[in-house]
Amino acid sequence: MKQHSLIIVAVFGLIVSSCQKKIDTTSSTTVKQSTSSLYQSFSENSFSSVSLNSGLVGYYPFNGNANDLSGNKYNGVVNGATLTTDRFGKTKSAYLFTGNPQNITIPNLHQTNILTYTVSGWFQLTQNSGGTIISGDEPLVHPSGLRFALGTTQAQWNVEDGWNTNGILTYNNNNFGNNIWHNFTVTFNSIVGLIPASAFQIYIDGVTIPTLTFQQNWPPGSGFSEGFNVYAPINNGTLPIILGNTMDGSSNFTNFFPGKLDDIRIYNRILTQSEITYLATH
User: Fold this and answer.
1) Helix 273-280 crosses helix 37-48 at what angle (to 10 degrees)?
2) Spatial CB neighbours of 118, under 8 Å, sequence gap ≥ 6
3) Are 25 and 109 in contact (CB under 8 A)?
């Protein structure tokens, strides 16, 4: 089980308590419980307002393997990535990606009939560059899906459908490449029809990141589809979910993420701010 220390500076003042990750006997979802009675009261009150089991499609704590602990058995297949220490210093409890074609594929989990979607997890960049954290798309191929990519100062959360892309891109100079762990949560919330940029949200360490609309398409006269015609629901066919890189238009792996990933959660609903905050602080 993962050992870590949590510092709470709030109404309680400064409390340092030892806590650990524990499997809830009523669910396959993991929650953390403290040995401190005061912190446990705080944790339980917070957790009562967050339903982290609801809508959970896949959960990957990476405790020695890439198995899905959501109960849905969407187990990951590790391709070259290696087990490493997590944000608490626990060995063999996160995965390190150092280059293509290293990734973790989830063959039986597809982005199908998606109108609402949340992905949350933890990352640590170990090089001064970025790459794709999670992908359900294959650029230039129809149909396609959602992708979240990260650079040292920017993040991109978008959907690609054939030749066209809709999404958002951060514009402030966040220092994601500072070699420390960060929590991310990305949400997608659309209705049937043309997907607006407002369907996408990016949270880093529990806080919404200011973004710009990101769109690209082939120009008039190119012979390809014109306009940002990306529609919901999203259906990416039989493409697997990929962690650590993505596919190019020739089905080759590209744009690898240089760093560590841990505690990846995939939901078929939009998490609330309290839920996002909880995940970012536990």
Assistant:
1) 150
2) 55, 185, 186, 187, 188, 265, 266, 267, 269, 270, 271
3) no
Distance (Å, rounded) from C-alpha 153 to C-alpha 75? 32
Q: What is the pLDDT of residues 44-101, one digit of tens each?
A: 444 444 589 999 999 999 999 999 999 999 999 999 999 999 999 999 999 999 988 8
What is the pLDDT confidence band of residue 219, given thresholds at 50, 70 and 90? low
User: Which amino acid belongs to residue 228?
Assistant: F
Answer yes or no: do 37 and 67 share one domain: no
Alpha-carbon torsion (123, 127, 128, 130), positive or negative: negative
> For residue 258, is the peptide bond before it cis, meaning its omega torsion is within 30 degrees of 0?
no
Which residues contact residue 3 at a Cβ distance below 8 angstroms, ignoring those fewer than 6 apart?
Answer: 18, 20, 88, 89, 90
Which residue segment(s) compose the domain that 233 sits in? 57-280
Do residues 22 and 31 touch, judged by C-beta distance below 8 A?
yes
Q: What is the CATH number of the domain that holds 138?
A: 2.60.120.200
